[in-house]
Amino acid sequence: MDIITQLKADNMRKKSLLMFITLLVALLVVFVTYLYKQEAGMAVLYGVEIVVLLALYFTLGRAMKKFRLFSYASVIISYLFRIYATLFVQNSFSVDILFFFLLAYAALQFENVLFFIGAGLGIAGFLASYLVPAADSGLIHNLVPTALLCYVLTAILLYAMIYLHQNLMDSFLLSIKKTLQTMEDQGSAYRQEMAEILDRVSNVNDNIQTNLHAQNEMKSAVHEISKGSVTQSEQITQIAGHAGDTVQSMEFLTQMSGELTNESLEAQETAKAGEKAVENLTLEISDVVDTIMELNNTFTVLTQKVEETNTFTDSIKQITEQTNLLALNASIEAARAGEAGRGFSIVADEIRRLAETTHETTEKINHNLADLNQSNAAARDKLELSSTQILTTAESSQNVTTYFRKLLKTLNGQVEKFKEFDTLSKKVTEKAHGVEGASSELAAIIQETSASLEEMSATIESLTNDHHTIAETLNEAAAQAEQFRAKTEQMQEKFADQMI
């Protein structure tokens, strides 16, 4: 049932109720009047009509909801009771006057068919009253034509009113239909807009959730990078400390190599002097013995220095291995850092190359020191042998000269090797200084990077909190919009049910 039909049904129901109450009150008044006049026939007739009216209303109206049928039945039965009273009970002009009331009663529903039925039955009643004999037939013959004329004119006026009312109702119902159609169209457009808004809110909410998830992952990644940077900073600080120790060791080694070089030069000069002195060995045997003793002491000191130098080379070798290991760890950490660790990777490669150079230099130093140890051992043995023999025989001076020549050659080689060792030590010291400075600078850069990463992590956390708030607000807005759309759909369903 659409809203127009429902309005018509409600209007029919209300008008039927009005007709029922109006006719019932009128019948009760007439019934009481005839009882008061003690006219039993008319009183019984109206009593029966009241019972029939009640039966019709509660049967057709209340029980069966046939209010239209009740209207037709009540109008027809009312006229028929009036005509029956005129024909068979009492023909009087007072009964004819009731036809005007019934004419207005038939016009209450504003229906042409019902009104024409009532008007026709009223005319038939007037004609019956005019033709049937009555106690006051003279009065009836004088007044019925005039009353019939008034009845017809009244019917015409009432029909005009019904016609205008129907036109007005048709216009009103057409306006209602147009309004409902407009509301339905607007409701459809509004629902479509609401659906688009909900879709946009849902898309924005999905994007916010995606950004929130990405920011959480970024936050975790930045936190891990920050932790890695702190660890790298500590490792670089350790490398810088080891580099400083290496610098100190290399400086000490350079100092010792200088001293060894000087001592080798002194030994060389001494050997030359010994070679010249051997020519006068016979005359200056005591001086040669003293010189040999001094050389023996010198080689003893030299042997001690060489042994100490061997200890230093072992320390350098350990430092070189540790530096190489630290450079490897630094390269691994730089690879983990990615693009941000490229500069650090270059420094790590330089440290590794420096460690390899130092290792090669140390191996050369060890080789030279091994040669020096062998030469020193041979020289000491020969000096001891020469010391023993020079006291027993002067003829061994020629052999001593040969030994001194060999010793001089060995010392020349040792001097050259010590010079090379001193040069390498200086180069290693310079590179170690560079490694120490680069490690310190790299540690400072990594510390600054760690601080920047911590600030970035705090900013990302703040953005994450803001996105959480926005996401919660969007969820609430989406839920409210969804509820509003559900209510709109319910209202539209109600309108649709009413339009069916």
From TrEMBL:
Natural source organism: Heyndrickxia coagulans (Weizmannia coagulans)
Gene Ontology BP, a term: chemotaxis
Domain of life: Bacteria
Transmembrane segments: 17-36, 42-60, 91-108, 113-132, 144-164
Signal sequence coordinates: none
Family matches, as SUPFAM superfamilies: Methyl-accepting chemotaxis protein (MCP) signaling domain
Family: Belongs to the methyl-accepting chemotaxis (MCP) protein family.
Record-linked InterPro entries: Chemotax_Me-accpt_rcpt (IPR004090), MCPsignal_dom (IPR004089)
Lineage: Bacteria, Bacillati, Bacillota, Bacilli, Bacillales
GO molecular function: transmembrane signaling receptor activity
Coiled-coil stretches noted in the UniProt entry, renumbered to this chain: 446-494
Keyword terms: Coiled coil, Membrane, Transducer, Transmembrane, Transmembrane helix
Protein name, entry field: Chemotaxis protein
Keyword Transport (UniProt): no
GO cellular component labels: membrane
Pfam family, one: MCPsignal
Residue ranges constituting the Methyl-accepting transducer domain according to the UniProt record: 207-457
